Amino acid sequence: MADVMPTRMRAVVKRGTSVTVSQVPVPRPAHGEVLIGVELAGVCRTDIYAAKGLLPCADPLILGHEFAGVVVALGPEVHRFSPGDRVAVMPVIPCGLCRRCAADEPECCPHHDFLGVGRHGAFAEYVAVPANVVHPLPDHLSFREGAYAEPVCAAMAVRKTAIHPRERGLVYGDNRIAELTKRVLHSAGFDIVDTYAEDSATPLETDAYDYVIETRPTGPAFDEMIRAVRPGGRIILKSRPAAPVPIGLRAVLRKELVLESASYAPFAEALAFLAKHDVTDLLGDTYALEDFTDAFTADGAGEERKTFLSCRPR
Ligand SMILES: [Zn+2]
Ligand SMILES: [Zn+2]
User: Fold this and answer.
1) Minimal CA–CA distance to 278: which of 88, 171, 86, 141?
2) What is the pLDDT of residues 164-212, one digit of tens each?
3) Fewer beta carbons below 10 Å: N end or C end of the chain?
């Protein structure tokens, strides 16, 4: 924590079609907000889509939404945190007014704002966020693990669907989300879960699975998934593609398949999962903020490991 708060900070800023590391003002925490010194931030496909202009975004915009850091200042009316607290943050900022919010499912608020898309995000030395999306980071979790909580939260959402541990399941895709999803299922007692690499030479068995979890949203991938799932089975949608995806609905209807989706589990459950399961083999290199283009390239290309940006003030 800085003794005297700086007034300017480094941040990865998107302005129109250009993305650069710029000096920008340090945000002031508004009413109900917490100012966090960002330690580490993970790079995600959503950040890359935003950087490429594939998603509707605020402009100018500081990118980044997966992060952990240290509380440095509190806005008015925030009593739950103190400067120096280690924290991780859920990037879904709920509206606080809708049915999902009233049902205490803020992570599923359909009217949410999203850090690094609709409002300034975490590829910066500091970020101000509402206190209700800030979670204490357990002492034995590293900032890297804390910054990985949002992908875990997304993977854990599959447990909210109607799939059952005794069914035969498939996670379609050969990437870290697929691997993480498989681990989440195993931890919940789902033992009969295969994974399938989309470039595999062996085609999937026909009508073989009670459910298929999608992590690769392309037309050909959906053709394969629809073929592999049994009649009356489920396809669980997990991806967040930037553009619409063609799905062979005639084949879906012929087999009376159920298409089900699940966005997030409660963020606290993701932190609890990380406290019990070692995922460090899914976590990759850390780059300086200035090298964000290298980090974006590595993350987009590698797929096996999460890439991070070190955001701590120098
Ligand atoms: Zn993400
Ligand atoms: Zn809401």
Assistant:
1) 141
2) 999 999 999 988 889 999 999 999 999 999 999 988 889 999 999 999 9
3) C
Shortest-distance ligand to the CA of residue 99:
2
Instruction: For residue 96, give the ligand nearest its CA.
Output: 2
Distance (Å) from CA 116 to ligand 1 centroid: 10
The neighbourhood of ligand 2, an ion, using CB within 5 A, equals 94-95, 98, 101, 109, 111
**In this structure, which ligand is nearest to the CA of 112?**
2
Handedness of CA 28, 32, 36, 42 (dihedral sign): negative
Closest-CA residue to 245 (of 230, 235, 234): 235
pLDDT tens column, 72-130: 999 999 999 999 999 999 999 999 999 999 999 999 999 999 999 999 999 999 999 99
* CA-wise closest residue to 234 among 156, 179, 161: 161
Q: Specify the amino acid at residue 299.
A: D
Please tell me what DSSP assigns to residue 86. Answer: E
CA 300 / ligand 2 centre spacing (Å):
31
Spatial CA neighbour of 278 closest among 188, 173, 144 = 144
Gap from CA of 89 to ligand 2 centroid (Å): 17
Q: Residue 223: what pLDDT?
A: 96
What pairing do the DSSP bridges indicate for beta strands 258-261 and 193-196?
unpaired
Residue 175: the pLDDT is 86
Instruction: Classify the C-alpha dihedral 309-116-88-108 as positive or negative.
Output: negative
pLDDT at 3: 63
Model confidence pLDDT, tens digit, residues 243-293: 999 999 999 999 999 999 999 999 999 999 999 999 999 999 999 999 999
Q: Ligand 2 centre from 15 Cα, in Å? A: 29
Q: Which domains does the chain have, with CATH numbers?
A: 8-154+266-310 (3.90.180.10), 162-261 (3.40.50.720)
